[in-house]
């Protein structure tokens, strides 16, 4: 760069966003473009020019701005350059190049010959801001044009070719007016599902550009410069507003106009790849509140958030200084009309056995609305927001867990709710007595290399732990029921009162020997470890990996399970004898 020298005097011109790409067919081949296209095959040690000047070479637009004593020319003013350069992922050597002064080219022989495929009748200064090659059809491409900077034109320009640029069709006639079109992408699964980024956000079309709808949802008005479709997620890169991700676009991939007339429709969930669980995920916070929570983790930056409780089936937090995490579970989408009276969602295993089920008043639902209008009311006592299931698109997250063991009234909860193993599952939507079912896969965390036999072995061990914990809880519940039954007699006198007191002591001993009975955290952690607390610790270990338990885990489990069996058997026998005498 020679400051103060007009770009018209340069042999090669480069803009601040000069395209640079590694060939998808050969990682040693790199392309770089200014006003011509260059190629290197030795990591930049040597470069060869593989095109002539592909621009209009508008020298009158390359003059030095400012005054003779203070020129304004630092590179951003360079014009007539290649703004976009892409290579076909399916055909090696097929390159498309678009310029900032309105020209479009293609070569199908690695730059041996270039053909001008600029759409006819384009207005002057139609900057080619994006070239999107269809992932479904080699000859098909889409372009997004922007004219506001050079021509004071704020209208959208989107075009499509299906024959390598021989002919073009404009697909922005129904696009909202006054929108600057910056980028366009086609979905990798559904042909004709298009996403366009503008100065104010995201627009989508499910009919190859015939109709368009806004897709900002909860994202504020932001300039969207690029998209990436990653599996079933849409990632948007904004200018000044960070990255935004729309988790799971499967409803857009599956939607058809006929669904609008149905009473209900369950979309097929995407197969879910687990990414692991760590107890830090749920650490900190408290009940839902409009007060801010602050959390600082050892040796890491802290963050600030609002606790929103269980929303949409997942624990939800609004982070002030961080982005939202991907939902920890399987995303389920379903459509409802305004005629629905009753709704139930049920998760089943591959054999059709029910895992969990939620009725209409139990489904915490977050509609696609603004952050200020989620459609639920906070219930500060339980921390579980009440919600209504509404017409339109609804979303629910299954957290991959089975129900927790039963609750013991008046005592700290025994938090053992095992995670379902990798495998095939089903979701059933029942609306006003009519059901529809879709299947999905839960896939192992790719960072772990356990076999299916090993994950199945873990599931067996975890189920045994759950069943044993439930046995302990049920024993405590029997003890509480028996104690309540004799409570009146304890206050009396004579043999009945003595008998009742023995029952109370027997039940209290079982309870205190099985589970922590403290009412504060200090009291609880000061008690010796009880069997249900040890089982909870073993459960927490199982949450951290996809693999089966090791020998020490099994040894601890067998020891605790044996102690529980003995404790419960002695209690049941003694209680039966005491209650028989009491009843007699």
How would you concisely characterize the structure shown here?
The protein is an alpha+beta fold.
| CATH superfamily (homologous) name of the largest domain | YVTN repeat-like/Quinoprotein amine dehydrogenase
CATH architecture annotation name of the largest domain: 7 Propeller
In CATH's first tier, which class of the largest domain applies?
A: Mainly Beta
**Main sheet overview:** 5 strands, mixed
Average pLDDT score: 88
Total DSSP E strands: 34
Global Rg: 32 Å
Overall morphology:
elongated
Q: The CATH topology of the largest domain is what?
A: Methylamine Dehydrogenase, Chain H
Find the structural class using helix and strand composition: alpha+beta
Written overview of the protein:
This protein is an alpha+beta fold. The chain folds into 3 domains: 7-248, Methylamine Dehydrogenase, Chain H (7 Propeller), CATH 2.130.10.10; 261-443, no CATH class; 452-583, no CATH class. It is built from 8 helices and 34 strands.
What's the topology here?
Layout: E1 20-22, E2 30-33, E3 37-40, E4 48-49, E5 65-66, E6 71-72, E7 82-87, E8 95-99, E9 104-107, E10 115-116, E11 127-133, E12 141-147, H1 148-151, E13 153-161, E14 169-170, E15 181-186, E16 194-198, E17 202-205, E18 213-214, E19 224-230, E20 233-238, E21 243-246, H2 250-254, E22 264-266, E23 272-273, E24 292-295, E25 303-311, E26 314-319, E27 330-336, E28 343-349, E29 354-359, E30 376-377, E31 386-387, E32 392-398, E33 423-431, E34 434-443, H3 452-485, H4 487-490, H5 494-514, H6 521-526, H7 531-543, H8 551-583
Parallel strand pairs: 23-34
Antiparallel strand pairs: 1-2, 2-3, 3-4, 5-6, 7-8, 8-9, 9-10, 11-12, 12-13, 13-14, 15-16, 16-17, 17-18, 19-20, 20-21, 22-27, 24-25, 25-26, 27-32, 28-29, 28-33, 30-31, 33-34
Helix pairs in contact: 3-5, 3-7, 3-8, 5-8, 7-8
């Amino acid at each position: 760069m020679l400051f103060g020298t007009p770009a018209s005097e340069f042999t090669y011109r480069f803009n601040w966003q000069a395209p640079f790409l590694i060939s998808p067919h050969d990682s040693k081949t790199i392309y770089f473009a200014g006003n011509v296209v260059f190629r290197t095959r030795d990591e930049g040690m040597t470069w060869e020019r593989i095109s002539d000047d592909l621009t209009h070479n508008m020298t009158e637009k390359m003059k030095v701005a400012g005054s003779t004593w203070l020129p304004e020319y630092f590179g951003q003013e360079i014009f007539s350059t290649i703004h976009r350069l892409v290579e076909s992922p399916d055909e090696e050597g097929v390159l498309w190049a678009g310029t900032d002064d309105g020209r479009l080219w293609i070569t199908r022989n690695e730059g041996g010959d270039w053909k001008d495929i600029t759409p006819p009748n384009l207005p002057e200064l139609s900057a080619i801001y994006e070239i999107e090659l269809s992932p479904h059809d080699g000859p098909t491409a889409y372009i997004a044009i922007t004219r506001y900077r050079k021509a004071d034109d704020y209208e959208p320009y989107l075009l499509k070719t299906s024959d390598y640029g021989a002919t073009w069709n404009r697909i922005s006639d129904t696009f909202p007016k006054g929108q600057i079109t910056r980028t366009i992408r086609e979905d990798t699964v559904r042909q004709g599902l298009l996403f366009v980024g503008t100065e104010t956000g995201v627009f989508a079309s499910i009919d190859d550009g015939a109709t368009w709808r806004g897709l900002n949802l909860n994202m504020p008005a932001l300039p969207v410069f690029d998209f990436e479709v990653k599996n079933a997620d849409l990632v948007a890169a904004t200018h000044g507003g960070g990255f935004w991700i729309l988790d799971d676009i499967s409803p857009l991939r599956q939607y058809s106009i006929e669904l609008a007339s149905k009473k209900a429709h369950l979309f097929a969930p995407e197969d879910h790849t687990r990414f692991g669980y760590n107890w830090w995920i749920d650490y900190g916070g408290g009940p839902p509140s409009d007060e801010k929570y602050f959390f600082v983790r050892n040796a890491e930056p802290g963050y600030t958030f609002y606790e929103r409780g269980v929303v949409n089936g997942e624990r939800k937090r609004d982070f002030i200084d961080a982005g939202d995490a991907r939902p920890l579970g399987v995303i389920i989408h379903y459509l409802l009309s305004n005629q629905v009276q009753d709704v139930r969602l049920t998760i089943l295993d591959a054999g059709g056995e029910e895992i969990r089920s939620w009725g209409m008043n139990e489904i915490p639902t977050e509609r696609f609305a603004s952050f200020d209008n989620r459609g639920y009311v906070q219930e500060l006592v339980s921390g579980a927001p009440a919600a209504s299931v509404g017409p339109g698109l609804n979303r629910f997250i299954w957290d991959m867990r089975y129900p927790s063991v039963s609750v013991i009234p008046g005592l700290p909860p025994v938090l053992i709710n095992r995670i379902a193993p990798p495998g095939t599952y089903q979701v059933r939507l029942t609306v006003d007595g009519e059901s529809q079912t879709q299947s999905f896969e839960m896939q192992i965390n790719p960072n772990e290399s356990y076999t299916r036999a090993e994950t199945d072995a873990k599931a067996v061990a975890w189920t045994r732990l759950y069943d044993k914990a439930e046995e302990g809880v049920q024993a405590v519940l029997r003890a509480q029921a028996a104690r309540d039954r004799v409570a009146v007699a304890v206050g009396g006198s004579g043999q009945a009162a003595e008998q009742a007191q023995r029952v109370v002591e027997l039940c209290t001993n079982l309870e205190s020997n099985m589970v922590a009975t403290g009412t504060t955290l200090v009291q609880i952690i000061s008690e010796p470890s009880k069997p249900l607390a040890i089982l909870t610790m073993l459960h927490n270990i199982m949450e951290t990996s996809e693999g089966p338990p090791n020998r020490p885990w099994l040894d601890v489990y067998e020891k605790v399970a044996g102690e529980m069996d003995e404790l419960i058997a002695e209690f049941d026998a003694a209680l039966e004898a005491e209650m028989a005498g009491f009843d007699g």
